[in-house]
Structures are given as C-alpha cells and as structure tokens.
Amino acid sequence: MKSGRPTESVARIASMNASNDTPRHDPTRKRLLQAALEIFADKGFRDATVREICARAEVNVASVNYHFGSKEALYSEVLGFAYREASERYPYTKAGDKSLPPEVRLRHFIGNLLGRMLDDTYLGRHGKLLARELADPTPTGALDQVIETTMKPHCELLDGIVAELVGPGYSEADMHRLGLSVVGQCLMYYHSRSLIDRVYPEIIATPEDIERTAEHIARFSIAALKHLHLEKPAPDRAG
C-alpha cells in the first residue's frame, strides 16, 4: 500500500491553491467539486480522470488546473468539501450542546451520522468516498487532514457523550470502544444497504424510516450504556 503522506509537489500545489483568489463559492468551482465527488466516489482516485470530471461539471478541461492546480489537489479539496457540505445538512450542533441531557445529544449524533451515510443525494457519496480512502489511502495526504480537522473532533464529541452516560470508572480506551460500538451499528446499515434494501426494504426506504432506525439505534445504545453505568468496569488489559 502506498503511503498516505503528501508528496512535496502536491503539498506545494495545495499551498498555492489555498492562496488562490478564486472565491470558495465560485459556481464553476462548486460544480467541479460536486462532479468530482460523484466520480471519485464511484471510481476512486486512480481511475477517475480530469476530462471525465470536467465533462460531468460541464466546464472546460483546463478548469481543474485553474481552480485547484492538479487532480491531486482537487481530490484533497473534495474530501474536505464533502464533509463541509454534510455538516451543513446534518450538523452536530445539538450533540455538542452540553446543556442538553446526554441521551438527547446521543440521539442527535446518531440521527445525523446515519443521515449522512444514507443520504440519497450527491452528498450520500461522501461516505462512499471516505470508505474508499480509509481502505486504500491515496498519496495525496488528504485523509490525514480530514481525520485531524473533522473526524477526530467528532470522535471526541461522541466519546464525551458516552462518558456522561456510563459515568466514572471507565478508561479512555473503554470510551473509544463504546463510541466505536455506536458508530458500528450505523455503519452496518451503510455497508449492508444492498442487502437490507432487498431483505428488509421498509427499514431505511424513506427519510422517515431512517429516522425511526436512528431512534432504534439510539434507544439500544442508551440502554446498553446505562446498564454499564450500573456495572463495575472491567480492568483495562491494555493498561
């Protein structure tokens, strides 16, 4: 597997692109990002071509170099763009509101996480793209940036909610395991969607069905976490 660290040339291009005077909300730039998100998600970084992306966006083939500098820099920006767009549609605002009970915060977190994963618009491809990148990181270094700026803070947010529900006595490693157990339930519906659509189509067929499924995951998780609150924590063998 190739290293996920950026090459010097890619890093330099990305730096140049960051200082580009082109507005972030330029319509051509946004069409390129949307088209690239779809194609990168469906084909992966290596099989996607700049020509195909520009054709999908209905822009001149030179537009990628003008707006981003290279295919690698475009890919890096697409990962961040996908997360920003998903965060606008499915914000974790209430999940981060510590004035709310942890049960409410967890319900909000799960609802928005599952919504992001099962979105049927082009935004739904952000999960597919991220899954590709996690399984086989590209040499752009994009994954490191997305993890540090978005995924890690969300994991820390979930760990904090879980910690409130289980109470004191559990280690940091315990919090990570419990948080991943919650996320894993949501991932099941994403990775097994083709199976679920054929065997249990009513479970996630509509936005309302997805909301009901998110509520089920939340109730199941809250019940388990509250049960752990009553138990003595097991020793952390990892130290």
From TrEMBL:
Keywords: DNA-binding. InterPro entries: DNA-bd_HTH_TetR-type_CS (IPR023772), Homeodomain-like_sf (IPR009057), HTH-type_TetR-like_transc_reg (IPR050109), HTH_TetR (IPR001647), Tet_transcr_reg_TetR-rel_C_sf (IPR036271), Tscrpt_reg_YbiH_C (IPR015292). SUPFAM superfamilies: Homeodomain-like, Tetracyclin repressor-like, C-terminal domain. This is Transcriptional regulator, TetR family. The keyword Membrane does not apply. GO terms for molecular function: DNA-binding transcription factor activity; transcription cis-regulatory region binding. It comes from Methylococcus capsulatus (strain ATCC 33009 / NCIMB 11132 / Bath). Residues 49-68 bind DNA. Pfam families: CecR_C, TetR_N. Residues 26-86 form the HTH tetR-type domain. Residues 1-27 are annotated as: Disordered.
